[in-house]
Amino acid sequence: PQSSPAPTPQLLFLPTGDYTIKSIHNRYLCREEQHYVANRTSAGRWERFTVTRKGTDSSSGYYISDFKGQYLDVKATWFPYANNIYGIQPRDKPSKNDPGNSSTFFIDPLGGNVHSLKVNWGTWSLDLWLSAEPSGAVGMQQHSRAWEHFTIVPA
């Protein structure tokens, strides 16, 4: 018998609105001075993010902005002959026209309110997932495992 093709993953459709984003370590994503952390035990103003759909459907991706109106954006630090480090930083405007769309996130459902937040980044179309370490440090990883899973609920 011929096997059927694997089902295409369904992208989440979130209406534009304010949300909290909690890591697998039960800590909220938060905007600090010029960076993000995931180390808060409760959600207040600094732990709220506006999720805005880019286009007419979920395949267009989303912009995520913080309480200061700045957008989550991927930043790379290049090291010759070594692993590159991918971080996340605030940006005044979403990167609509840069080759990597470093401000465009795809929100993939993993069950219930748990999701992964992925950016298809750079001219090489590198998939990077938002990640939170137990220490609260936030960055981007080239895989989606437990530390890259977040609970997203309306604020």
Structure description:
The chain is an all-beta fold and 155 residues long. Helices cover 0% and strands 45% of the residues. It is built from no helices and 12 strands. Strands 1, 4, 5, 8, 9, 10, 11 and 12 form an 8-stranded antiparallel beta sheet that branches. It has a two-stranded antiparallel ribbon with strand order 2-3. Strands 6-7 form a two-stranded antiparallel ribbon. A hairpin with a 2-residue loop joins strand 8 (106-111) and strand 9. Residues 6-11 have low confidence and may be disordered.
- The Rg value, from CA coordinates, equals 15 Å
Determine the fraction of residues in helical runs and give it as a percent range.
under 10%
Task: Count the beta strands.
Answer: 12
- Give a quick account of the main beta sheet: strands, pairing sense, barrel closure: 8 strands, antiparallel
What does the overall shape look like? globular
Q: What structural class do you assign from the helix and strand content?
A: mainly beta
Sketch the topology as an H/E string, one letter per element: EEEEEEEEEEEE
- Overall mean pLDDT: 84
* Count of helical regions: 0
Low-confidence spans: 6-11
Q: Approximately how much beta-strand content do the residues carry? A: over 45%
Q: End-to-end span in angstroms?
A: 49 Å
